[in-house]
Amino acid sequence: MNMLKKILITATAILSVICYSTTAAFAAGFDVNNDDSVNVNDVTFLQNEISNFNDKTDYDLNNDGRVDVNDISTLQIEISNNDIKNIEANTKLSVTTNEYKKNVGDTVTFSITTNNAISDITYSSSDSSVAKIVSSDKNTVKVKVNKVGSATVTAKQCSKSISVKFNVEKAKCIDISEWNGDINFNKVRKAGVTCVIIRAGYGKDPNQEDNEFQKYYRQAKAAGLNVGAYWYSYATSVDAAKAEVKNCMKTIGGKEFDLPVFLDVEEYRQAILPKRTLTDIIKTFCNGMRDNGFDSGLYSAKSMLMDSAYPDEISSNYLIWLAAPNESYNKLPYFVDIHQYDWYGRVDGINDKTDLNYIYNLNY
């Protein structure tokens, strides 16, 4: 009988994680006690018959020519099978919100309510470049929206599914440094700004952290803004770019960003470098950020990028944040992800003028 219990436990454990797509009725032969239902009472009845050495052929449920504990195992599996079919047929999935309107850079976490505990829920996105599934557990999924557009995230359990639509618009973003003074980030957020890119510091030498970076970072996070950073570069060689990576990491190490860390390239001394040299400087810094776990990209003026580096090589590997305040986004190069469209913008919560940007894409 201990062997019998082991067989039954094993059968039940296997079935507990499986979904069935059919709901076929029991064969009448499994109703061994003839009470017009098939359940645990049939198992008890069959156990007694076998214990009394009854080898009636009607009890040979697995059709192996014998009546033994294997027939009890077959009966138990069939009962478990039917229970799961019934559960699956009545599975119901629901969410509190079926549609989200978000801005590029936002993250949404939502839960699935289900009455079915026999199987995990799986998730998929119709376009992961728009709505990317960052993580999920049994009933919760975290989605990051990375590009203007629409996408649907679908949760599926057994044969049942439910979908949530994401409509994603460009994000309004400010970039700031210590020169912006005191900022009321709650007012900034209420003014419609959803993203901020903060200068972390500049150059390769010690003590060149932006004086307001730590405060800005804490306050912007607390206000619910999506936060990124930039590092102002003076590098004229690959070795200097490596030193800037190390210096930047002293400031941003351990921070969590919603947006990338950008290298700010705009010095004249860099513009007159050979294109190959400047391109390698940019790649060195961006790769250094990635090696430390951060997404990365380049900030520069249109003329600087197009005339002093290899733009196709850079844009195929990193995000491009372009300063072009006198041009519309539609007239910019196809690879521009963030457009700095104003250097003299006004935003509630900031006393003086500030740079304004639109973020269209965070995929590279």
Automatic annotation (TrEMBL):
SUPFAM superfamilies with a match to the protein in the record: (Trans)glycosidases, Invasin/intimin cell-adhesion fragments, Type I dockerin domain
InterPro entries recorded: Big_2, Dockerin_1_rpt, Dockerin_dom_sf, EF_Hand_1_Ca_BS, GH, Glyco_hydro_25, Invasin/intimin_cell_adhesion
Pfam assignment, any one: Dockerin_1
Record key words, sorted: Signal
Signal peptide span: 1-27
Top-rank taxon, per record: Bacteria
Residue ranges occupied by any BIG2 domain in the UniProt entry: 89-165
UniProt record similarity statement: Belongs to the glycosyl hydrolase 25 family.
PANTHER family attached to this UniProt entry: LYSOZYME
Record's protein name: BIG2 domain-containing protein
Source species: Ruminococcus bromii
